[in-house]
Every structure is written in C-alpha cells, then in structure tokens.
Amino acid sequence: MRIIAGSRRGMRLFSPVGNNTRPITDRVKESIFNIMMKWDLPADAVVADLFCGTGSFGLEALSRGAKWVTFIEKDRRTVEILDRNIAKAGFLKSSRTICYNVLKIGAAVQEEMYDLVFVDPPYEMSRNCDMASDVYNLMRQINLQVKDGAIVILRTHLRSVVLELYGQLEMIDKREWGNMKVAFFRKQTREKLLEDLEKSF
Q1: pLDDT truncated to tens, each residue of the chain (201 aa)?
Q2: Kind of pairing, strands 114-119 and 165-166?
Q3: In the CATH scheme, what is the homologous superfamily, with its name and number, of domain 26-199?
Q4: Coil, helix or strand for 140?
C-alpha cells in the first residue's frame, strides 16, 4: 500500500503480516478520493478514520490537504504500525491515534466536529448494516459527531444490506468494486430531514 497523491505521494506504508486487516487496493482508494473531489474534500477537512488499520484512508487525506485526522483502531499491534506510518509521513502534529473500540466511542470528537468520516468495519461486521446491526448503531452515533453537510463513507461487503438513511445521514452515491460496496452519505440538516419525511406521507 502507498499514498497515491498529494504532499506524500508515492510513500509506501508499513503493513502487518497476516489477514487481521482488510487493506484497500490503491486503485479503489484513488477512485474513492476522485469521487470526493466533487465535494472539495479532503482539503482543509477535519477527518476521522474509523477501524483505520494502518491508516491508509486518513494518511491519504492528510497528504491531500486535510487539516486533522483522528485515527481509531482497537488492535494494539496494528496501532503500533499505524504510529510508524504517521511518523514516517511527518503527520504527528496533525493527527491523533486512539486505541479503542470504535463501537463504543464512534468518531470520538476532539475540538471540532468532523467534515469527513471513513467507516471501514471488519469484513464480518460489514456483511450486515441493517437496523439490527452494530454498524447501524455506529452510524446513528456518528450523526452527533459530524457537521451538517459532512460526508460519511461506509465500505461494506458487496451483498450487505445498506440503508438509504441512518438518522440524518442520507445516501447520495454508491459504488461497487469486486466484492465490496462503498456508500457515500451526507448529513442533512434536521429541517431538511423533516421536510423530506413530510413529503413521503
């Protein structure tokens, strides 16, 4: 894995041995970031990278001009590799690493709410994102941790049931690559959400 574009373009990332993480290919990551350009992201954005593994999404965002990234990963051995990647890229002053269970703290708001959140749960967890799932509860929690208009990107198994709406997070785009599905959500204002609900009756 490597950083594709921006100030750290071409930098290779340290990766763990084994199958504990679910790294994204450079081709798919580049496609996701190309889609984000239509929302002028990630430039100057406050970002959270959840289930971040070795930090591929968040480091790419910092390289492309994000203001801040909070990395959250519960596996301590993976976090050690993540910290090496952050130090190698020189992003220690523009990021924070939290070793904790994402499902308990969500995006863990710092001084500012987030403009952009990557949600990349483990393979088995991502198979189901309906109302009975951990992912559903997490997405509802993220509602309270992002700004109006924020973008939340959810990567899941291709056949996963992904809802069109999680609280104020409304799906606005969806793409498929191989055995994965990537859904893009935008946080609506509460007024817009109520207006849409009224129209549906």
Answers
A1: 899 999 999 999 999 876 555 678 899 999 999 999 999 999 999 999 999 999 999 999 999 999 999 999 999 999 999 999 999 999 999 999 999 999 999 999 878 999 999 999 998 899 899 999 999 999 999 999 999 999 999 999 999 999 999 999 999 999 999 999 999 999 998 776 666 656 655
A2: unpaired
A3: Vaccinia Virus protein VP39 (3.40.50.150)
A4: helix
Q: Where are the beta strands (DSSP E) in the chain?
A: 46-50, 68-72, 95-98, 114-119, 128-129, 146-157, 161-162, 165-166, 169-177, 180-187
Contacts of 178 by beta carbon, 8 Å cutoff, 6+ apart: 28, 158
Residue spans of the domains in the chain: they are 26-199
> For the whole model, what pTM was predicted?
0.93
Residue 47 near residue 70, CB atoms below 8 Å: yes
Distances (CA, A) of 123 to 36, 135, 181: 23, 12, 12
Q: What is the DSSP track for 90-108?
A: T-GGGEEEE-S-HHHHTT-
Judging by beta carbons within 10 Å of its beta carbon (0-12, 13-18, 19+), is residue 149 exposed, middle or buried? exposed
Q: Is 79 left (phi over 0), alpha (psi -120 to 50) or beta?
A: alpha
